[in-house]
OSBL5 protein (Dicrurus megarhynchus), 232 residues
Amino acid sequence: DGEVHINELKNGNTEMFWNPTSEVRRQRLKRHIVLFEEQTDFESERLWQHVTSAINKGDQHKATQEKFVLEEEQRNAARERRESGTEWKPLLFQHDAGTNEWHYKYEDLRPWDPLNDIAQFEKDGILQTMERHLSTRMSNHKATCINNQITRHKRSAKDCRRRKTSDQPSNHSQNTESSCSTPESVQELSDDDGKYRGITGLCAQCGKEMNHLKEIHSAVLSLQKAQQDIHR
């Protein structure tokens, strides 16, 4: 937020390197933070408020004291959980016993793909990436599920016909109903209304990913609106 200068030691010249003018400040992205009164007790801004206040006032001694109070409370809480046998289950991190390190559960370490990746956003502490080809993968997955169901449907019909052929009833029992009825033909599939007629339903993963896709689409619309506001 302050001016940055480059000082040339050989000749003593000073050059402006960075100047956050009012024009620069107006172009900044708007920060979206959780209001202090809406934060829980263990969120950083609320948890470290007294330490932060002391640092801003330049009181290093007070900041050290407040930091010690926080750490001591954490030690006592850990001791109580250990004595009561209560297991601490973090929401966003998991422990790697091999390296004895904590890792973010939803980390995505792959390189950013500008041809496929649109934007990265956070929801409830979970970082997610909006991808151009997500809908294509969804369509392929749904098609696979439907094809599997159709295959099972046809196999069932084929098995029924085979049993009818191998177990021909006698003349006096030809009017008796067969134990295996002929399956109805699979209706033509159409995705115009978002449903696949003739299929009992998509798998649980399809439904979950469809809901996930709707959430991402909503988030992207919000990002696009923010970008339009920025450009305007």
Remarks:
- The two ends are 24 Å apart (CA to CA).
